[in-house]
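Q: Now give one record:
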Amino acid sequence: MSDAQKKFYLTTPIYYVNARPHIGHAYTTIAADVIARRQRLLLGAENVWFLTGTDEHGQKIQRSAEAAGIPPQRFTDEVSAQFRSLWQRMGITYNEYIRTTEPRHTQGVQKLFAQLYSRGHIYLDTYTGQYSVGEEMFVEGPPGTIGPDGKPTETVTEENFYFRLSAFQGQLIDLIESGEFCVEPEARRNEVLSFLRGNVHSGSSPASSSSGSSPAHSSESVILSEPSESKDLRFSAKGTSYVPGALKDLSISRSSFDWGIPVPEPAASTSQKKHVIYVWLDALANYMTAVGYGSEKPEDIAKLEKFWPADLHLVGKEIIRFHCVYWPAFLLAAGLPLPKKVQAHGWLLFEESKMSKSRGNIVRTETILDAFGGLKPKPIDWPGAELSDEYWKHEQDLFASDVLRYFLLREIPFGQDGSFSFDALVQRYNSDLANGYGNLVSRTLKLISSNFDDTIPDHEEWPIVTMLVDNKKNVLPSAANSYSVPHTELALFAKAACVFYENAFSVLKFSQPVDFEEVRQALSHEQKIYLDNYSVLDSISLLIQQTDGYISKNEPWKLAKRTTDEDRRRLSEVLYNAAESIRIITGLLYPILPYSTAKVWAQLGLGEIEAAAKSGQLNNLTWGGLQPGTKLGPLGPIFPRADKGLIQIMTDAEQNSAPPIPSKLVDEKTTHTAPPPDSSSHPGAAPRTSGLPNQNAGSHVGGSGSPVAELSRPPAPHSEAPASGIFATAPAAASPAPDNSPITIDDFVKVDLRVARVLVAERIPKADKLLRLEVDLGYEKRQILSGIAQWYAPEDLIGRRIIIVANLAPRKMRGLESHGMLLAASHGEDGKPILATFADSDEIELGSRLK
């Protein structure tokens, strides 16, 4: 690896300062911190840069500050400080914290705007439309339209600067399809490409409709490319078709308020009004301004040259379009390198439904830190110095942060939606950490302490065990002796765990299995039980289980009671092997559990784990690295067992909590949420991960939300729905004849059939029949699970207009809620479902009811 390649720059979204931080923000930031710690092991701390921060401009912030009677800068100072304070409590190791109100950011954003203007990519024009202040976005509709925040929109006429986004349609498609600009997971990649390609099924460009003062504008405040003739499709370098003109130009300034970065000269002089740069250039540019873009200082220029382009942007899935369409287009227009990868994570659900202020079920990270921190009370003999209480409180916070880090990465498949609940948190902690890893460490080291005077015992050299590694993908274990030799088997699985861990980490598979087909084929049936479908945490969990089994099989507590030389030799060998396995487990867990692994490392007598990380000891964990004769450190419990009463403590804390921000500073009914795909193609939707939304049960993520209408019906009892997920399916061969008894019109009108369009379609892991769909009903978005995966490919469904049963009670499948059913007819002997659809040429609006 050359010096130019030996770097890693990763970012979280910058969090919008409309509300206090919550567990969703923590989820994204924890994932970034785990990745950063792992990269530092591989590349060295000096070659890794980890950025987070806050997004602080916009009309909503200005109005909130005015309502509170304080300047916007003070308002943003207070909320941004809460984010920074929380990351400190959690031990987040960011290198840079950027605020969009900082002078260095202003300087960089103005430079980028000026560069785009000088290259001919920005022009001035006028637009009239409906604006949602709560969401900081334009929406389609007449005056008084209810916006995504549940409040009436305002009619706004503005002169805006526009960015020629339409000019980059084909280039963006080619970059994403080729993988040069990587977008993951696949469902998000398909979503972005679908947006870029336009409605290829109709085979024509969007019609130009006039709105406002300029006939050149569409109702979405954008400029269209020159309209193409019907059926006039173009093709990408990979041969896929797209509609020219489907990608529209983007508004990048506002003139109706002044809380933002002023448009610089010479563009500013072309307008009679004062403009501020709108959220797109402002917020997204933070990724460059934080590493020196816009600065003339030599040290900043050197930092930018070293770390840009970014290697990884972590974002919530509802802001994927902003990062994968608008951001790379800005960079292409400015002649700047593109980031290498954008990785979207899913939505974090609380007890199978969305978190919202109106429901009072937002989970504060502080609640978890306080509750689990209480499992580690300050020792009675702790020194009585003034800083002792403060020091121990930080120790408690770091311990509790480890618990949350492990749970979120273990329970939430990265890139997909996942559930959070207090009882699941306590159960996972007890099973995996207290009873698993913690118990293994405790019983092994106690046996060593009592039988070998607190010293790692000696052992005999065992037969050579090798791992044949082909490009770090295929693992074929082999040994000089039989696999029945216990210590050989344990060493074998330790080495296998390291290889699978490395591969899974490289693709961010923290909890999802990584399917190495060739590996499974090369292993025997017995070995497949242990080595099949690894993820990062699976590989560690397996090694913990194998070590526990090894100890149970060899019964060192019985060997300790015997006095023969052979029994003594076997005892030392068993305990050495167990301790060596713990060393490897601890090294693998370090990026995920930095505080707890430091305690275990010290108990093993190995000193400070941070020093080991810097010296490279954790980068290449090989069997036999634990030296006999090493003196153990002071022993003590690592993970005290959590009583179930902790669940109630956290529940009560959330119900009784008061927001850290004075209530007058934040309008509870206008919580900012970033728009979901296709909620509006207008640039007014801000590229932000926001406070949790207060709409649509069962469809939101950590750190972000989407403006989806509230589902008023109560959640259904927990139950598994049939795998079909469609309204009409073929009856089983042995089923009785259908009941064809007549129904009344009153019965029929109870079924609410609506027209919807598929926005997102993706497979659900370990569910061969199910697809997860996100559909647009015009007035709201919904999640529907459907058992059509064996007949329909996800990418073939995106953009289709379908019919759904809209008033069906929610059902749970695979831990996700389905809010409706697709209408389909069964065909053939296998009951193949044929979806009821409308052609795009049909004049029917989304949300229309079938009567």
